[in-house]
Backbone:
């Protein structure tokens, strides 16, 4: 897929992961989070920046602060188990930030998978989940095959519609391979994630045809007017989004899409629901043999005849892992528009801005 993904170029400033983390933590503490909660949310955002998923990194801080200040996000949530059996748990998230609610859900799914072979954790009434691969990677590093999806408010046009009808639901699958980083798929059900449209708008970069519609439902390549992403694969992405809403929001009794489209009071409040799944591969055979087969599969795929326009056949998560290694060493680029927005927020809240070069 072409188009804007990570901040780069002469308009970007450079900072370190530690500096970004301190800044994010200080901002969230200033708006009411405990140091523990603020650290947890900062961890997830900076991880996204390290991986090159800048649309889900610190650029989200002003939006999180806005949601806290208007009461949609609870900075001091109490997570509780509403339903629990040997294999499942339903966590009431109390409008917690997604990066605070999702790691305990993944950990619970992993714990149950160790006990009975598979574990499912549903999360009710969380908020923006962030880079969802952060959580499945957690499960894979615990030796599990892990899956996570989340449901949100309507941003994307359903196939055949010309208005925001369904969410751009993120979906991630992570597979352990015994050595190094897991295979890590992290995708939206739209052609492009909403965050990348916002990123293109901030940078003033044209977007490819087929990415989005404007507010009137007309196709556009102008990032200033692009508001409604289109579904990946037309009816396939739209159908997948619909089913994720059913598997998460409807199962936990917290509908999001219908409430929003009917413009109810609940539908006007930002909220999300999510599902995490862990499968203990050791229950089905020798995990070392499984890891060998994963590595074998990767090897044979990489050895396939290559498109001359492609430098290398990459596996899911490989580009992100390499980007993280480079950015830990050389620093994280922050787009000038994002830097200016964060600096204005820092000034308003009385928080020290992170240093840049």
Residues:
């Amino acid at each position: 897929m072409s188009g804007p993904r990570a901040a780069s170029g002469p308009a970007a400033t450079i900072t370190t992961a530690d500096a970004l983390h301190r800044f994010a933590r200080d901002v969230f503490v200033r708006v009411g989070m405990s140091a523990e909660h603020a650290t947890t949310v900062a961890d997830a955002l900076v991880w996204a920046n390290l991986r090159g998923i800048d649309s889900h990194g610190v650029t989200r801080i002003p939006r999180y602060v806005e949601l806290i200040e208007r009461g949609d996000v609870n900075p001091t949530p109490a997570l509780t188990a509403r339903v629990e059996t040997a294999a499942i748990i339903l966590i009431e998230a109390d409008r917690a930030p997604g990066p605070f609610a999702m790691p305990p859900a993944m950990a619970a799914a992993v714990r149950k998978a160790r006990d009975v072979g598979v574990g499912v954790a549903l999360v009710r009434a969380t908020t923006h989940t962030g880079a969802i691969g952060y959580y499945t990677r957690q499960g894979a590093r615990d030796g599990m095959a892990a899956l996570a999806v989340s449901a949100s408010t309507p941003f994307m046009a359903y196939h055949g519609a010309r208005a925001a009808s369904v969410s751009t639901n993120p979906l991630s699958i992570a597979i352990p391979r015994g050595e190094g980083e897991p295979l890590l798929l992290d995708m939206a059900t739209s052609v492009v994630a909403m965050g990348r449209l916002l990123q293109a708008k901030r940078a003033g970069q044209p977007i490819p045809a087929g990415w989005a519609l404007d507010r009137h439902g007309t196709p556009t390549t102008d990032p200033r007017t692009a508001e409604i992403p289109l579904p990946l694969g037309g009816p396939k992405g739209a159908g997948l989004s619909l089913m994720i809403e059913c598997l998460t929001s409807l199962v936990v009794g917290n509908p999001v899409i219908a409430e929003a489209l009917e413009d109810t009071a609940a539908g006007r409040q930002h909220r999300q629901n999510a599902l995490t799944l862990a499968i203990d591969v050791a229950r089905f055979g020798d995990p070392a043999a499984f890891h060998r087969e994963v590595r074998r599969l990767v090897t044979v795929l990489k050895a396939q005849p290559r498109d001359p326009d492609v430098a290398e056949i990459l596996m899911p998560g490989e580009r992100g892992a390499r980007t993280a290694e480079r950015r830990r060493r050389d620093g994280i680029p922050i787009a000038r528009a994002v830097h200016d927005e964060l600096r204005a927020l820092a000034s308003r809240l009385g928080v020290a801005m992170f240093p840049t070069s």
In short: The longest helix spans residues 98-116.
